[in-house]
Amino acid sequence: MRYLLNNRSFRHLILLEMLYDKGWLTTKSMSQKLGLAERLIRSDLEDLNCNANFFKLEYSRKKGFCIRFFSNYSKNAIYMYILRDSTEFRLLEMLAFNVPFSAYKLCEELYISKSTLNRLVHTLNEKLSVCNIHITSSPFKICGDELRIRQFLINLVLEKYQKSSAVFSTEQLTFSNELLALYENKITKISNINREKLKVGIIVACIRTSNNHYIDMKPINDNDLFKVILDNPFFVAKFQALFDLEIQPQSLQQVFAILYDSREKDIKQVNMEAENNGDSLFFDKDYCKCDEFLMKLSSKLEIEIPNREFVLQELFNEMNRLYKNNGVLFNKHKDFITDVTIEITDFYRVFSKVFREFFNQGMYSEELIYKLSYCVLIRWENLIKDLKKKRVVKICLYFNCDERHQLFLADYIKQEYKDECSLVILREEHLKNIKKNRRHYNLVLTDVNGLYIENTDVITFSFFPDKKKWGEIEESIHKVR
Fold it and tell me: Which of 130, 348, 421, 441 shows a CA-CA span of 20 to 30 A to 25?
């Protein structure tokens, strides 16, 4: 939801991310990358240095600027700072969590004029129209797609504050835990799910429901969990005292929506439920498509999935959740995959390509594909071990020189890289064969200048690789592995 930020906040976010990822950068290089004036960048950096308390801005005449994060802060601090500094997100948080506001009260809380408030609301409504969310006035409140509003609030709390205790009272959090325990006792055990997110989701649902905002859902009346709560004066009183919420089956369904959405569903049970609802073909088709996708992914990676049934069920569940979004400004799953290792980045590249071949691209954002790839990655048994197995690099030696010299080169390279490569020595008359069988080689080492072989690295040196050529060979081998 970065598109909701104003120009200043967005610049600050991009500058902090860029400096965090790249290290030293000059204002000139930042200006070229961002298409902004150097004067504006210097002004933004001075502003950040004065107001942010989680890093130290360093300057060098030659190298430019660099930010040094204090050891007790992580990259998350960037997003916490931007969300707390943004007037747009502060306004949305106030409207979504509280009863309707008057213009006077909002201006007082945000330290802005009424004309600024009107312009801000107008701009946000234009941007939020793609999400089917809008802000009404007289009084001011946020309405529209209730599922997205709750999703936004859950992610906002976790990203902006990190700890739910910074937003909600101890009594609210304790009660939320009690509801979770009751749900597990009466319905099903919750596993493989972020429990903190569920606790926040329950409280968000209580607040939104108490303010008469509802998700459009098919009514559930005959429910053991609802009966236990409605028949227990303690629970009824707690809902009233903590959230000013009168409990009925409809309101309980709203409160527990995130739990029913997050439970780990058994595929057979899902198909049975779907069949009862006259929708079995949809689930069968959806499930089979996930299965085919995993088979294709496994084939592309040339790695078996030893626990395929489990991975399949988890992927199926993740794709069919109502609450799909992962963050407001920070996509942790993307960050994880791009930061961990080259092997995992390669895995995502294959995953993304195969996924887009199998599923409708319009239904799945890049953010969601990162989340689904993370879901498969952490559940696929022994995947990291198999991804990290070194591939044997196939090297072809082709030199116009004495055969003994070629054998010496081959022995030297084998000794240098031990079991990481296999070598083939070809004579001059076999040049056509190299091009014909290029798929069998990852790298060709030769003394022939200007030799080009499609989709195969060619490194040329006269008699023996110098330091620079060894660097090129090392880089090529690393790329293949």
Answer: 348
